[in-house]
Amino acid sequence: MPVKLIAKVASHHLADSPIFVILFCLVVTSAALIITIGPMAAQQHKKRKEPLKMWLSLQNVQIGINGISVDADLIVKNNNQKVVTLEEITLYFTENNEIHALEVSVYGATLPSELKPYQELDLGLNGLADRPLMEGIEAEAWVICNIEGQAIESRHTLFTM
């Protein structure tokens, strides 16, 4: 049956017209493009990273007696259904409109550290400022954790220096 249909179309008087040939070529080209580009577009969609669901709570931020040491507690919870790796933690705080970024020593885990699904880590942080900090002023602190290549920021916490 399909052979008879093709024979009828091929013998039809419109089959010899240039418009029919152009339309036929466009249909074949479009089908070929869809077949080749479709899987590539689907693969690109799979490569996109979904944002991680993490819970970060920065607490008990304190300046040491020497005015240089900064201590804090951090709770990190993995709210994902997969294992994630906590790679790096940076502590930020303000001092009179100046933002300080401190590399911190971590107590309670060794970085990089894997967190299982719904696992919680209770960490101690200690960093050193490059100069003595002002005392008695109100400041804001937060952390940015590098987890699976994504920078995740905690809420900002107010504390007195």
Describe the structure.
Strands 1, 2, 3, 4, 5, 6, 7, 8 and 9 form a 9-stranded antiparallel β-sheet that branches. It is elongated, with a radius of gyration of 30 Å. Strand 3 (84-95) and strand 4 form a beta hairpin. The protein folds into 2 domains: 2-47; 54-160, Immunoglobulin-like (Sandwich). The protein is built from 2 helices and 9 strands; from the N terminus they run ααβββββββββ. The mean pLDDT is 82. With 161 residues, it is of the alpha+beta class. It has helices spanning 2-11, 18-47; strands spanning 54-63, 69-78, 84-95, 98-107, 113-115, 120-128, 138-147, 150-153, 157-160.
Explain the layout of strands and helices.
Elements: H1 2-11, H2 18-47, E1 54-63, E2 69-78, E3 84-95, E4 98-107, E5 113-115, E6 120-128, E7 138-147, E8 150-153, E9 157-160
Antiparallel strand pairs: 1-2, 2-6, 3-4, 3-5, 3-7, 4-6, 7-8, 7-9
Average per-residue pLDDT, rounded, comes to 82
Quick one: CATH class of the largest domain?
Mainly Beta
Q: What structural class do you assign from the helix and strand content?
A: alpha+beta
CATH topology of the largest domain, anyone?
A: Immunoglobulin-like
Beta content: 35-45%
Low-confidence stretches: none
In angstroms, what separates the terminal alpha carbons? Answer: 87 Å
Share in helix: 10-25%
Q: Tell me the CATH architecture of the largest domain.
A: Sandwich
The biggest sheet amounts to: 9 strands, antiparallel
Number of domains: 2
Number of helices: 2
The tally of beta strands, per DSSP, is 9
